[in-house]
Amino acid sequence: MRVIEVIIDGFKSYAVRTVISGWDESFNSITGLNGSGKSNILDAICFVLGITNMTTVRAQNLQDLIYKRGQAGVTKASVTIVFDNRDKKKSPIGFEEYATISVTRQIVLGGTSKYLINGHRAQQQTVQNLFQSVQLNINNPNFLIMQGRITKVLNMKPVEILAMIEEAAGTRMFEDRRDKALKTMAKKEMKLQEITELLRDEIEPKLEKLRTEKRAFLDFQQTQNDLERLTRVVVAHDYVRCQEKLEQSAADLEGKKQRQKDLEESAARLKSEISHLEEDVKRVRAQRDKELKKGGKAQALEDAVKKHSNELVRLATVMDLKKSSMAEEKEKKTAVEKNVSELEATLQEKTQAFEEIKARFDAAKDDLEKQSQEAESKEELLQTLQTGVASKDGQESGYQGQLQDARNRATAAVTEQEQAKMKIAHLEKRIKEEEPRARKAKEQNADLLKDLEGLRSQAQKLEKELGRLGFEPGQEEQLYQKQSSLQQQIRGLRQEADGLKRKVANIDFNYADPTPNFDRSKVKGLVAQLFTLDKENTQAGTALEICAGGRLYNVVVDTEVTGTQLLQGGKLRKRVTIIPLNKIAAFKASAQTIATAQRIAPGKVDLALSLVGYDHEVSAAMEYVFGNTLICADADTAKKVTFDPNVRMRSITLEGDAYDPSGTLSGGSSPNSSGVLVTLQKLNDITRQLKEAEASLHQLQLTIASEKSKLDHARKIKQELDLKSHEIKLAEEQISGNSSSSIIQEVENMKETIAQLKTDTAAAKKRHAEATSDVKRIEKDMKDFDNNKDAKLVELQKSLDKLRANLTKNAASVKVLQKEVQGAQLDSEQVSGDLSAAREQLQEVEVAIKAQQRDIEDLVKQQSTLQETLDGVQAELDDERAKLHGFDDELHALEDATRSKNARIAEESLEMQKLGHQVERFHKEQQSAVQTVAHMEKEHDWIADEKENFGRTGTPYDFKGQNIGECKSTLRNLTDRFQGMKKKINPKVMNMIESVEKKEVSLKHMMKTVIRDKRKIEETIISLDDYKKKALQETWEKVNGDFGQIFNELLPGSFAKLDPPEGKTISEGLEVKVSLGKVWKQSLTELSGGQR
């Protein structure tokens, strides 16, 4: 595209229309004299191309471009350039079909610029796009190379040189387009964000709210329709029922009136009959009294019967007392027998222990005596061997004496064995003779012995069963006695607690369970019931009452929910203040403040909270009541701590005077509730004791209930055991009384004697062996002594010393055993004494039982005699009464008839009352039905049109096909629901939601459009970047080749080129490099001015 014609009119020095045409294809310069307008031609071309920098066209503003600034009558400047557009490859985008393109720019004095393309008005941006599409951008910095720009160009940085290449390539337009696209995309993104925020923050919440209101409105409409339908059904049903009452036959009323009349006549008749019966009763009684007056025999017989009956009752009472006393004695006997049995077992154990200790003591004592004799013997032997003289007269000295003694012991042992053998032989002979008789006797007593063993086996089983059950005589009586004691204690505590409760009636807090299965542990009670006051703090009771004030009677609960339940459903009898533990804002004085107060008056100041005891779970309530008040011993202390600047807390003296930091003083007299806390503490203690006693009683009753069956079973087994013991005793007496048993016993004794003799023979044989051993040892010692006297004496001395040491040690052990024997003997004697006393007590009890048994037998005889007398008198009385029986029967018959008629009168009177009420109710129901029907017809005008369908099958008023009771219940629920929904629904919601939904759809459509445009812009930017890179590469290659050829032509032998900086690409910049000959210059400053 090239210039073929320029038309200038009113632009700068061209006052009139000037047409310059016939431009050469190779045109590249303008020549002419000074002032001929050469520069204005260039300025005109720049003007049309859309230059914005006025200094380039040597003007300050657009007005300077009009001929003589419009003062010569020319008020408009216009320049038109006609371009040849036949080369379609280089045509502007969108103008390929035009052979020529004319671009006109006009300015008017005081106005704005106007562009025309091919005679049509166009926007400046359209004109710029046209030129930029063919690499013509007048506003590029280097579009015009003015005078003095060569050096600046050569000194440009690589990025600035790259910009010149971009201008030549026309990619600057792409950069502008790209920047505009990015700005447009940013605007689109902002618009998208605005739409999203509008949807999220305004449209969607509003739409959700409207949809909720719409659902509520539709539900309301459905409820309204159901309400109307059920209302018609229920009203129709009530209308039909009222009509039925109105149509009820009057015959019922007449029947009731007739029945009333019949009942009145019947009542009059019955009263007349009763009066006749009463006259007959008087007559019969008069006859009976007349018969009774003939003699007082019946009365005398009745008195005698009464007297004898009373005497029998007295004897029965005495008999019961005697039997009770005897039962107690028998129980006492059982206890004593048990005690005797236990003492016998204990005595047996003690005796056995004594015998065991005694045997050990005797054995130790014998050993000690043997050791003593051995020591004495060795000492005698040693002295004899050393001196040759015995220490005791009449004894043989030395080994000879010991040898003789050992031989004597051996001889005695042999003799004892021989005698034992003879005795054994004799006894065995007798046993052989007597054993057949004993065997025969055993066969005769075999059944008795077998029965005895069976009884003993059964008794042992019963004893084991009793031991397993843990039966103790008197255990049940002890349990019942303890139960009676606890019941008496509980009655006393309740009476005492009731008395204290009357003194402090304000603490009586009662309530009903507000909900089913309500957990009463959530209600802790009154504040006054939740803390304790120790005895040492009792003097502070008045002060604590003043401190708590009305809060003393506040009710403490776990949460505010429980408090609300109590207030709404607890049926409280009086107004109360409730303290919820989870909500109460308790304030407790700091430890520092309390410490300061206690330093001011040591020992006279305490925090009220520290004087009371309480559970941890109610600590918040206690801190709320007592946590911010000091209790002081006297008024002076209270003044000091209250008004101290580091304390400033409310204080109360023990007398009840209250000091407030604000300067208020109250008190001077005891409060009306004085002593309440002390009484409350007593009540709390008694209540605690009562709970403990009731818990103990409950546990005891459970124990009695659980032990009853076991005790009954044990008592039954004990009775069986006593019976078996008695049977065993009888069997033993029967066996011992038999003559053949003595033969059996004699044989058994002989066998025992033989066993003892055999034991003695074994012992004698052992002693014989020991004596024989001693003989051999002594003979050996004598031989050794003869061979080596001195060594044997030393050995004897050592043996003697060792024996003496053992003798001393064993003597101490024997003394210890002796003390144990004495202690065991004392224990045995003590138990023996107790056993004797118990046996004496048992004899006394048996004597008392026998005496009471005789008394009971005497009483039985007296009862028998008296009963016979009573029977005789009673028979006479019955005969006498039989005479009067006729009168009595007649009187009874008359009285029964009178009662029957009176009862009938009462029944008929009651029936008459009921009939009267029914008639009255009938009139009222009829009147009410008339009013109800009239009211229904007036209130519901549709009744007149629909009443023919009431109750008809297949219509909405089919009463048989519907449960009217359920309909009425549903109607009530729907009415309540309708009234509640009527206040909450939005009647305009249907119109409102439609407009908001349309707005939502519009915004979402707009958002989709913006997203689509954004995506297209991003795609365009990518394609423009690719196109820019391609165009820049082509332009660089073309410019680089031309640049080198031009320089070579101007300076042969030289070459110039544009290369990217080292390590970079052309998109990052270009540098001018010159080669002069074969030398590449690193800097253009080395060139001359002309070369540059």
From TrEMBL:
The keyword Metal-binding does not apply. InterPro entries: P-loop_NTPase (IPR027417), RecF/RecN/SMC_N (IPR003395), SMC (IPR024704), Smc2_ABC (IPR027120), SMC_hinge (IPR010935), SMC_hinge_sf (IPR036277). SMART domains: SMC_hinge. One of its GO terms (biological process) is chromosome segregation. One of its GO terms (cellular component) is nucleus. Keywords: ATP-binding, Cell cycle, Cell division, Coiled coil, DNA condensation, Mitosis, Nucleotide-binding, Nucleus. This is Structural maintenance of chromosomes protein 2. It comes from Colletotrichum liriopes.
